[in-house]
Write a structure and sequence with these properties.
It is built from seven helices and eleven strands. With 235 residues, it is α/β, with parallel strands linked by helices. It has a single domain, classed as Carbamate kinase (3-Layer(aba) Sandwich), CATH 3.40.1160. Strands 4-3-5-2-1-6-10-11-9 form a nine-stranded mixed sheet, with helices on both faces. The protein has a two-stranded antiparallel sheet with strand order 7-8. The longest helix has 25 residues. Bound molecules: guanosine-5'-triphosphate (GTP). The site of guanosine-5'-triphosphate (GTP) has 9 residues, from strand 4.
């Protein structure tokens, strides 16, 4: 079977790397995720990864702290995760380039759009770190922005929940599970799939978003093969 997509953005939350510890990077967890990504990569799919930083620091959690400062701390957290992913993937024999939205040249390449595309064409995974480089923007918005910039066909939004619901299924056992949604529905219903900036950016640029759970890591592969998992958000 052929993969459905040629170029994708995989958005991983920082928490996805923490495993049961809920904090930091859990080695077996990150290895399981990377093994899946490698499998997809070996099918010939061009993969760019946007990673969050919530396993180290949540941008908005700095109680009483200046918001921009808290967000910059979050951006640095994404860089730690990006280097962790790079290391594990390269250990598995997958070539990776990390690009940061804020220059830290001693640590990784700066984000250069044309270079990122070239890396993908040369069969390397590109990891985009440091968010958009601006406070007040989430890493979901980064995924939307980078997807538009590199012409990715879809954003694979790997979450701790298996789909989009109308309320929290852990609290409300009757929560309605969606298999398909429009961008406008997500915005109007105030669904917490992605923040409104990220959703609007995807809407304006016609980029579909597939939301699925990472509790089953083979979901990344299933998503790329076009299986109907999770919730698809599109026009
Ligand atoms: P091409 O030569 O274009 O195919 O790409 P390449 O990434 O293999 O070559 P390049 O010489 O640009 O990079 C070689 C290595 O240095 C790669 O691992 C890059 O990630 C890394 N690298 C490139 N530019 C920078 C930078 O500005 N800072 C850091 N820290 N590493 C860099």
């Amino acid at each position: 079977m052929e993969p459905k997509y040629k170029r994708v953005i995989i958005k991983l939350s920082g928490e996805a790397l923490a495993g049961n510890a809920g904090h930091g990077i859990d080695t077996p967890t990150i290895e399981t995720i990377c093994r899946q990504i490698k499998e997809v990569f070996e099918l010939g799919v061009e993969i760019a990864i946007v990673v969050g930083g919530g396993n180290f620091w949540r941008g908005r959690s700095g109680e009483g702290m200046d918001k921009s400062t808290a967000d910059y701390m979050g951006m640095l957290a994404t860089c730690i995760n990006a280097l962790g992913l790079q290391d594990v993937l390269e250990e598995m024999g997958v070539p990776v380039r990390v690009q940061t939205a804020i220059e830290m040249k001693q640590i990784a390449e700066p984000y250069i759009r044309r270079k990122a595309i070239r890396h993908l064409e040369k069969r390397r995974i590109v990891i985009f770190a440091a968010g958009t480089g601006n406070p007040f923007f989430t890493t979901d918005t980064t995924a939307a922005l980078r997807a538009a910039e590199i012409d990715a066909e879809i954003i694979l939004l790997a979450k701790s929940i298996d789909a989009v619901y109308d309320s929290d299924p852990l609290i409300n056992p009757n929560a309605k599970r969606y298999t398909e949604l429009s961008y406008i529905d997500v915005l109007n219903k105030g669904l917490k799939v992605m923040d409104s900036t990220a959703t609007s950016l995807c809407m304006d640029n016609h980029i579909p978003i597939l939301v699925f759970g990472l509790n089953e890591p083979e979901n990344i592969l299933r998503a790329v093969m076009g299986e109907k998992i999770g919730t698809i958000v599109q026009e």
